[in-house]
Design brief:
It is a single chain. The chain is of the alpha/beta class. 35% of the residues lie in helices and 21% in strands. It contains 16 helices and 20 strands. The strands form three sheets. An eleven-stranded mixed beta sheet has the order 7-6-5-8-4-9-10-11-12-13-14, with helices on both faces. Strands 15-16-20-17-18-19 form a six-stranded mixed beta sheet, with helices on both faces. The protein starts with a helix and ends in a 15-residue tail after the last helix.
Length: 472
């Protein structure tokens, strides 16, 4: 025991960094943020930040603290809709003439510049955005994985939003149910001055009152008596009314203090109001932007000017026309997301409909069966099940597609209308070989999204002259 204790004391001594601790304490004394990782330490945020390598830290007395300050920060989490909400808020900040910094599952961006691409929905991406001295307001996607592995990048924020909660990634890190998932997601509320929560989510309803923070609720059900009770108690309310107007009454505002933002049909990402989940994302973004101090005119301009293109919102309702065949590329990756997408699929119509699905290997068979059920609720005429080789996660190659196909068949879907693809590009080739003008193809794309988008943008043709045989 003595020897082990000695080794532990030696390790602690080796890791000790008095200069880092002194700078952290000085930042706290001056009321500004402190960011730290293995390479660098930062005081302040965005335009008010200064960053040094950890092996070259200044003494606190050498820092010009008068020049150090924070910028407004929003944290956005939830099961689905995080990335779209973050990008909407960033568009609103930009419309106000300020430089947004954002981190998402696809990139870190400052203004119109992409600093790096990849999944940056954890604290590493947040720090990259917050350390950029051009940033005047930051919107940070905060995913479950980053929260559980590395925590939060900041210990305070102006607002935290939770878009929704649904069964996804259950079993990871001991998460057994949605209640446990809520415990993780709502960590963001502990560091925020105020929260934006989905009133249509029963778990968030139950948890919201106990957060000890002002809450703005957003909802697609404006006549809900529960929502009226919250509003009467002083909570903020952001709703899509029966007339299709998106309105906000901020928390603590007077009853007549209502901001009429826009018609849902005028917001491009809602596809004329058909994409109801994007109406909900728009409501969340309105409330978050208001909490960040974005003026009403800029909130509206950002909302109606934001389109879900492969550049601005990759893999989220990206619609292409390939020789009269409409192809929808989307990131939907769990039953909750697929069921939300079904409303869009029905709204888009199509003479016939084909859907291509996959799933990561860390979902159990029951979750795969639920994904199959959700897919069939969209009434497809054909389904492609595809391999996600980059996400096998312990399962042998081919097993997930086989389980998905068996689940589809168990629901009565004809085996002759199911095809297998080795990857997402092969699924695209199969789908286009099957489709005819007037048909709708829905590709739920995850691992090879950019390659799929590039091929569709080029007209959909495969590089070689070979085309796969048509599906049954």
């Amino acid at each position: 025991v003595a020897a082990a204790a000695a080794r532990l004391r030696a390790a602690i001594a080796a890791e000790a960094d008095p200069a880092l601790v002194a700078l952290r304490d000085a930042a706290a004394a001056h009321g500004v943020a402190f960011l730290w990782d293995a390479d660098a330490a930062t005081v302040g945020l965005g335009t008010g930040s200064r960053t040094w390598p950890v092996d070259g830290l200044p003494a606190p007395g050498a820092v010009d603290w008068a020049a150090i300050h924070d910028v407004p920060v929003a944290l956005v989490t939830g099961t689905n809709g995080k990335s779209t909400t973050v990008r909407l808020v960033a568009a609103m900040i930009a419309a106000a003439g300020r430089v947004p910094g954002l981190s998402t599952t696809d990139w870190v961006r400052v203004g119109g510049e992409t600093l790096d691409r990849g999944d940056y929905s954890g604290p590493g991406g947040a720090r990259m955005a917050l350390r950029d001295r051009r940033v005047e307001a930051a919107v940070l996607e905060t995913a479950r994985g980053g929260l559980m592995r590395r925590g939060l990048a900041v210990d305070r924020a102006d607002v935290a939003a939770v878009t929704n909660l649904a069964e996804d990634h259950l079993g990871d890190f001991g998460l057994a149910d949605v209640a446990a998932l809520a415990d993780v997601k709502l960590v963001v509320a502990r560091v925020a001055r105020g929260c934006v929560l989905n009133a249509d989510d029963p778990v968030l309803r139950a948890r919201g009152a106990g957060l000890g923070r002002p809450v703005t609720w957003f909802s697609l059900r404006p006549e809900d008596p529960w929502l009226a009770e919250r509003a009467a108690a002083g909570a903020g309310v952001c709703v899509c009314g029966a007339d299709g107007r998106l309105t906000l009454r901020p928390a603590g505002g007077a009853r007549g203090d209502v901001l009429d933002v826009a018609a849902a049909a005028d917001v491009p990402i809602t596809l004329g109001g058909a994409a109801r989940y994007n109406v909900a994302n728009a409501l969340a973004a309105i409330a978050v932007a208001d909490a960040l101090g974005v003026p009403p005119a800029a909130i509206r301009a950002g909302l109606v000017g934001f389109e879900s293109t492969p550049d601005s919102n990759p893999g989220r309702l990206n619609l292409f026309d390939v020789g009269g065949v409409r192809v929808l590329v989307d990131y939907a990756h769990n039953p909750h997301g697929v069921r939300a997408l079904n409303d869009v699929i029905r709204g888009l119509g199509g003479r016939r409909r084909l859907v291509a699905i996959d799933q990561a290997g860390d979902r159990d068979d029951a979750a795969l069966a639920d994904l199959a059920r959700a897919t069939l609720e969209g009434r497809p005429d054909a389904v492609i099940v595809k391999e996600l080789r980059s996400h096998l996660r312990g399962r042998p190659e081919g097993e997930v597609p086989r389980v998905l196909a068996a689940a589809l068949a168990a629901q009565g879907f004809p085996a002759a209308s199911i095809a297998f693809a080795g990857d997402e590009l092969e699924a695209l080739d199969l789908a286009l070989a099957w489709a005819e003008p007037g048909d709708l193809v829905v590709l739920m794309v995850h691992a090879q999204r950019q390659a799929v988008i590039d091929r569709l943008a080029a007209g959909g043709s495969a590089p070689s002259s070979h085309r796969p045989p048509p599906m049954p």
